[in-house]
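Supplementary Methods. Inverse-folding protocol.

Structures were first reduced to a discrete structure-token string of length 269. This string, shown here, constituted the complete conditioning input.
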């Protein structure tokens, strides 16, 4: 009985102490405390929304990385963007880079300076060169020759599949632009035809890549990548939501045809 009385007195004492503390706090102090809490929550929500938008528009890196097969036009594109001229180029075995100043069509303060990296397309060096720059990729531009896709479709599809399946690229949520180059030539295929052809090749590659992805998941030194597409459905690039893919037609030798690409770079930079 004594212990119950002591517990009751203790609860009454705590309640009295709480009421005494509240009495000492003025209404102004309560008002300012409420404002402070509201501001803190507002800033937290703004931070989370901003982070989500940044992750959905562009990757975490600083560079626009150009990839693709040999003679697709990567080096020509690099210097057309950064220097306003299209030089005569040869197959490169080393990476090139330069700074590109974006336009300001998105607003007065939207102009930015972004690094553009040209990854060599030769099969002997392109894998290591891409691994060197992929962690710093803000976005990726995949160039292909629209006039020779028929003979190179398997190689082009495999290289693009490798890029989109890369765990670092997926983790950084890099947007990808597939640039169908050399549209000024008569034999060039349209972006729509190229997209459909690549989607069919991706269906084949998804089947053959299952064992490779399984082996990666058992390797503690490498993070497994997410499978491309939706299981049980034909592949479509619209299914790659973590690396949104945009197809464009262009001719690097005609600067005006790069308008869509420049706007895309400005949006993701």
């Amino acid at each position: 009985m004594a212990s119950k009385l002591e517990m009751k007195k203790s609860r009454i004492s705590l309640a009295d102490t709480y009421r005494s503390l509240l009495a000492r706090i003025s209404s102004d102090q309560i008002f300012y405390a409420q404002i402070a809490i509201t501001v803190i929550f507002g800033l937290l929500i703004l931070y989370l929304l901003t982070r989500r938008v940044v992750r959905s528009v562009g990757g975490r890196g600083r560079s626009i990385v150009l990839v693709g097969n040999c003679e697709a036009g990567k080096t020509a594109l690099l210097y057309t963007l950064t220097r306003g001229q299209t030089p005569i180029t040869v197959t490169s075995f080393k990476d090139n880079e330069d700074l590109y100043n974006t336009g300001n069509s998105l607003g007065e303060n939207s102009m930015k300076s972004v690094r553009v990296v040209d990854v060599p397309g030769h099969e002997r060096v392109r894998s290591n060169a891409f691994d060197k720059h992929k962690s710093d990729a803000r976005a990726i531009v995949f160039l292909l020759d629209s006039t020779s896709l028929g003979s190179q479709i398997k190689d082009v599809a495999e290289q693009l599949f490798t890029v989109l399946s890369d765990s670092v690229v997926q983790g950084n949520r890099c947007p990808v632009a597939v640039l169908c180059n050399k549209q000024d030539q008569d034999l060039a295929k349209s972006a729509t035809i190229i997209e459909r052809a690549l989607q069919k090749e991706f269906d084949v590659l998804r089947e053959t890549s299952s064992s490779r992805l399984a082996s990666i998941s058992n390797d503690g030194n490498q993070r497994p990548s997410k499978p491309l597409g939706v299981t049980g459905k034909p592949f479509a690039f619209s299914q790659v939501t973590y690396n949104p893919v945009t197809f464009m037609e262009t001719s690097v030798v005609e600067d005006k045809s790069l308008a869509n690409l420049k706007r895309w770079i400005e949006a993701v930079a």
